[in-house]
């Protein structure tokens, strides 16, 4: 993630071999998300079908799974795009961005207190979770998030509503690496869990629909969201060239919300990254190469502000993401 991203973490024992890991993960990632590469479509047999993105998911030597180039990539090339599995606006942006895609709303005068949509399409695509959500009283839950300055429980709330409406399954995030949690951290999550379960049980008048919503499920979702969520900052405009998009991501306004993706979650961190993730108008992400990349090279993004000194970077990555960075810059003490 750029200086804009938050959430991501440690460990993982892969049940996959190198080969089937890349196949299975790419299949699940791409069946759910739109993908395009910058390669000229005219070079390929079928002009109507975009070529596969120039990447695969594989196992790295020291950082679990990672994303690798399957061919030479040029600086500025679009690697692929990705649609979120789920996203949620920041509480401070609820009245200013679309409740589904996080696009800035044009007409703020008509925005609703529980979220508005930028288009009929977004409204239609939200119908499942929104119909569940508006039946419950979220005052206590939202207050809890606001007073503790928490954003991830809001994402678990949305996922829970998506599961109840049939828009998602309880295991939608299971492929993602979870962070390790201390007993203290898990105890802190209990209040949020109680408030979420209470709001939904009261609204649905039955335990049956919320049977999946156990403390264990809630904590396990938060453990994955903490390490894999991206903080969305929109850069606006049309930033197709490398320099403008890099400048735009530095100059982007504050976060409009947070989102979880499948494929972007497999990019490891580097303090001198060769790729970056960017959001132009909404939560649909673009992954781009920052410099020329050789076939087989791992593509890495930067999770934090890379301009900090080594000690500050290591501290932030350890505290926020739970790992000791092993990138070349850190190994050489830069
Ligand atoms: C968002 S995940 C990236 C994908 C992950 N490797 C996987 O297998 O799902 C972030 C985790 O990857 C590992 N990781 C990412 N960048 C790393 C780095 N520079 N040094 C060491 N571990 C890293 C850490 O375990 C970190 O918690």
TrEMBL record:
Q: Name one GO cellular component term.
A: nucleus
Checking Gene3D superfamilies in the record gives:
1.10.220.160, 6.10.140.2220, SET domain
Q: Could you tell me the superkingdom of the organism this chain comes from? A: Eukaryota
**Pfam families hit by this protein:** SET (PF00856)
**Which intervals hold domain SET?**
53-304
Under SUPFAM superfamilies, the record lists:
SET domain
Question: What protein name is recorded for this chain?
Answer: Histone-lysine N-methyltransferase ATXR4-like
Q: Which organism is it from?
A: Quillaja saponaria (Soap bark tree)
């Amino acid at each position: 993630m750029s200086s804009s991203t938050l959430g991501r973490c440690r460990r993982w024992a892969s049940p996959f071999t190198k080969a089937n890991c890349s196949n299975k993960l790419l299949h699940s990632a791409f069946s759910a998300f739109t993908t395009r590469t910058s390669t000229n479509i005219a070079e390929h047999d079928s002009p109507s079908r975009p070529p596969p993105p120039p990447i695969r998911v594989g196992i790295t030597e020291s950082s679990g799974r990672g994303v690798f180039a399957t061919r030479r990539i040029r600086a500025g090339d679009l690697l692929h795009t990705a649609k979120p599995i789920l996203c949620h606006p920041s509480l401070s942006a609820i009245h200013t961005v679309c409740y589904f895609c996080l696009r800035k709303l044009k007409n703020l005068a008509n925005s609703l207190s529980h979220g508005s949509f930028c288009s009929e399409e977004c409204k239609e695509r939200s119908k499942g979770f929104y119909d569940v959500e508006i039946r419950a009283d979220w005052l206590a839950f939202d207050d809890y998030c606001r007073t503790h300055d928490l954003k991830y429980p809001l994402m678990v709330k949305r996922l829970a509503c998506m599961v109840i409406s049939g828009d998602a399954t309880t295991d939608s995030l299971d492929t993602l690496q979870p962070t390790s949690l201390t007993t203290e951290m898990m105890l802190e999550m209990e209040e949020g869990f109680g408030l979420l379960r209470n709001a939904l049980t009261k609204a649905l008048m039955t335990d049956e629909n919320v049977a999946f919503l156990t403390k264990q499920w809630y904590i396990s979702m938060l453990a994955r969201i903490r390490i894999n969520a991206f903080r969305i900052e929109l850069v606006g405009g049309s930033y197709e060239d490398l320099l403008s998009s890099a400048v735009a991501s530095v100059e982007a306004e504050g976060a409009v919300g947070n989102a979880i993706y499948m494929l972007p979650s497999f990019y490891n961190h580097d303090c001198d990254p060769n790729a970056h993730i960017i959001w132009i108008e909404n939560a649909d992400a673009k992954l781009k190469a920052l410099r020329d990349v050789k076939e087989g090279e791992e593509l890495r993004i930067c999770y934090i502000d890379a301009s900090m000194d080594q000690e500050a970077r290591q501290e932030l990555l350890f505290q926020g993401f739970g790992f000791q960075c092993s990138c070349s810059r850190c190994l050489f003490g830069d």
